[in-house]
Amino acid sequence: MAEGHSPDPVASRRNAPAIALRISGERSGRGMMTAMATFEAVADEYDAARPSYPNAVFDVLGPLDGLRVLDVGAGTGIATRELIARRARVIAVDPGREVLGRAGAHTSDLVAVVADGSCLPIRSNAVDLVCFAQSWHWLDASTRVAEAHRVLRPGGRWAGWWSHARADGQPWFDAYWTAIHHSCPGTHRSQRDTDWGLTVAAPAMFDVGDRLTVHWVRELSVDEWMTDQSSHSYVAALPENPRTALLSALRTIVLDEFPAGTLRVPYETWQWVATRI
Ligand SMILES: C[S@@+](CC[C@H](N)C(=O)[O-])C[C@H]1O[C@@H](n2cnc3c(N)ncnc32)[C@H](O)[C@@H]1O
Q1: How far apart (Å, rounded) are the C-alpha atoms in residues 157 and 69?
Q2: pTM exceeds 0.85 for this model
C-alpha cells in the first residue's frame, strides 16, 4: 500500500519489499490446500491466458478512489490490477505464493498477503470493500460469510463475480462440455449457474442486491484458448495422461469449428454486490 494511507488494516510494517508476502496462521483447511495447489501448478498458464473482466463489473462498485479493498483469492492479480487502476487501496490475499508472485510481477509495490480467505489476518471493521473474483466458491462455506462480515466496516460491501463462456447450443461447445464431463468427474456445466448471491445472504449480516449480468464476446487464438483451458482447476487437477488426452481432444474440437485459428466466444460475467449490515 502506498505511503500515507492510514490506518493499515494489516499489522504495521516497515521497509516493506515491493511485494509484501505475509503468512497467516496455520488454520488452513484441506479443501483450501487442494484448490490452492491446483492453481499454483498452473500459475504461468493462468497468468498468460485468463481474461480480464468487463468495465461494468467495476463501474457498478462506484468510485473506488481511496477505498480500502481486499481482493481475496487474488491469484495472478487480474482483478487486483483493475481495482488499483481505479485508485483503490488494495491488499491482494491468496493462499498461493506462486500466483501472488505473478501478481507482484505485474504491479510494483503490491501489498499481498498469503492467507486463507476464510480466516483473514485483517483487523475487524477495517475495509470498505471485499472482492472475490471467481474465488468465493473456494472458501470454507461454514465460515466465509462471517469472516467477510467481520473485516468489513458497517455499510461496507462484498462483491463477487464469475465469467463463463456461454456458447450453449453451438454444437462445438456442447461437444466440448461432453468431453469435459467424460474426463472430469464431479465437474458439470451447470455449476456455472449457481446463484452465489444466495450464499452471502444471511440474517443480520448482508443485504444482497440483484444479479448483474454482463454479456461480452471474447476473440482469441486457439493456442490462447487452450492455454486458458489448461489453467482451469478441473483440468489442472487431472493426472498427466488424462489431462494431455483431454486437452488434445478439446483442441481438435475447436480447430474443427475455427479452422482459421481464431475463436469468437460469447461470455457472461455474473456479479452480486452485498452490503454489510
Ligand atoms: C479462479 S482463481 C481466481 C483468481 C483471480 N481472482 C482472478 O480473477 O483471476 C481462484 C483463486 O482462489 C484462490 N483460493 C483458493 N482457495 C482459497 C481460499 N481458501 N482463500 C482465498 N483464496 C483461495 C486460488 O489460489 C486462486 O488463486
Answers
A1: 10
A2: yes
